[in-house]
Amino acid sequence: MTHWIIAPIVLPAMLAAFIVLVVRFHQSLARAFSLAGVVMLMIIASGLAWQASDGTIGMYQLGNWAAPFGIVLVADRLSTMMVLLTSVLALFVLLYAIGSGWDKRGQHFHALFQFQMMGIMGAFLTGDIFNLFVFFEVLLIASYGLMIHSGGTRRLRAGTQYVLYNLLGSTLFLFALGAIYAETGTLNMADLAVRVAEIAPDNSTGIRVAAVLLLMVFAIKAAIAPLHFWLPSSYAEAPAPVAALFGIMTKVGAYAIIRIYTLVFPPDLEATAGLFGMWLLPVALVGLAVGMVGVLGTNKLDRLIAFAVIGSMGMLTTAVALFTPAGISAALYYVIHSTLATAALFLIADLVRSGRGAAGLDLRAAPPIAGGAIIAPLFFVAAIAMTGLPPLSGFVGKLLILDASFGTPLVWVTWAVILGSSLIAVVGFSRAGSVVFWKSHQLAAEAVDETTPEDAQGALEPHDPKGHIPVLEVVAIAGLLALLVVHTVLAGPVTRYMDATTAQLFTPEPYIRAVLDVPGKDLSKDPHHADEGHAEDPTEGGHDAAEPEGGH
Amino acid sequence: MEFLFASSVGLLTAAGLYLVFRLRTFPVILGTSLLTYAVNLFLFASGRLTIGAPPILMDGVTHYTDPLPQALVLTAIVISFGMTAVVVVIALGAYLGADDDHVNDPKEEGADT
Hints:
The complex is a heterodimer of chains A (about 550) and B (about 110). Chain A is mainly α and about 550 residues long. Chain A has one domain. In chain A, strands 1-2 form a two-stranded antiparallel sheet. With about 110 residues, chain B is an all-alpha fold. Chain B has one domain. Chain B contains three helices and no strands. In chain B, helix 1 runs antiparallel to helix 2 and helix 2 runs antiparallel to helix 3. The interface between A and B is medium-sized, with 32 and 37 residues.
């Protein structure tokens, strides 16, 4: 049994504690440790992904307790892929946060960032559904701190909404878990898969309720309409690097849907048949439409990107809701694309904001920004990717999803909504881009003599005072976009990898065997249980018993 | 006992939901607290209601209660307590900053009041 599987959780946890306890007053040291941690994380994640790429399912028993009694971590292709994606995203986001100085605008950015990593990694790796809840809470509580990082009334207000909404989501999650436990008597995902399959269809009321509750919880996390209302304000008001990192958090919800609804409640399960397949697809299409119409309707760049996130989650859910291998495979391709594209857009919006002074991110003409010649092309590349125009990966992803939905009864509706909403998104993004980047030059030419309008704040320095080119920031964004290009160029191999991942998801038997068939620690050798005669001796028993019980 | 337990969970949930749909942060936070009480009781009941039985393996005892929901409830209590503390602090910050404790988005600056 390899201990590397737990490394992506332990490393950030230790590092976060170290940063907050030891180097909290040394900004540069905290940066160095945080960056080193993320690089290490990426190396470990690559190793895990490489290990899982031949189809082996890695399994780690915490405390060496056998499943289903102990908690297990499972590293199969899907988990390791998501872990690798998270660590890559985290590296670029962290580079941006350091380059732009966002991490200095409040306290404990790096510690919270590492705790966030811990939560996300744990959520991807765990094989126990209650443990999934716990890691959700870890990543949420870190995200609360990050979301209101550097303060401000508007941000706190949005943060309150975000926390309350997620608190309700967590409560719902607990209700679902209680119902599942009451029905099956287990919380281990592999064991659940076995026991749920044994439930007779005429006695399935409880498990059906639990399945739908659980789907609602994940839909909240994944911002699927009509449960998406928390997203626009939270993402728009969060600091840019945090919003970029949050791009993976909606994917955690999508991952959980894919995992639970292929393993525990597979589409061909009799007890829950026809329960969510029927309405998840229409709901996803509504989300897609709502998101893209929001892109067109909003008047601020950051909210526009937040609505694009809702739209892309709708697109992703459309593919997932097909619950066919082709659909899931397309969804997995789209997950990577959408995470990287969203992150790049949020970071670009932040560069625009810092360059525009008083105008902020309002979609109106303002004096040209410093470095606009670099930022504008970045924006257009990211926008092309996000809206799914050729030649970038958004187009490939959309094509895969359209192709996957071909044989379904709702194919015409699906195609109409996907293509229509893409058109709307293209219009929305090109309007935003031309107002922010092109109108500004027109305005500058017209109003050379006029003084710049004195607004409440920031108008004194409409340009960056030192005229400094944001090198590290641009490198981070360009890195994300370069990954998108790679994702497009290598679409063939990536798609084959996703197909293999999907094949693994749709044959859960090896997963279940890998988790349930491995014996845990030999309880007969446990000093506490070894020999009743010895254990009852107070001097010896007390001394020996302290160790195994200390672990709980 | 089942009826009493179930109706108390239902009552707490109903009261919690009513409060959660209020417009100001304080009732909403109270509502989430009530909901977490409700969910804790619900989790507790998910291992079946048993009275006067030990939750731990002992010699000579044949009638057990399920220990796992108790562990789950313990975890849930800790987490919900922490979360409530966080939301109180954030909501206080928002209230003191804007002198307004509504949950919804503030009106845009240009809009009519």
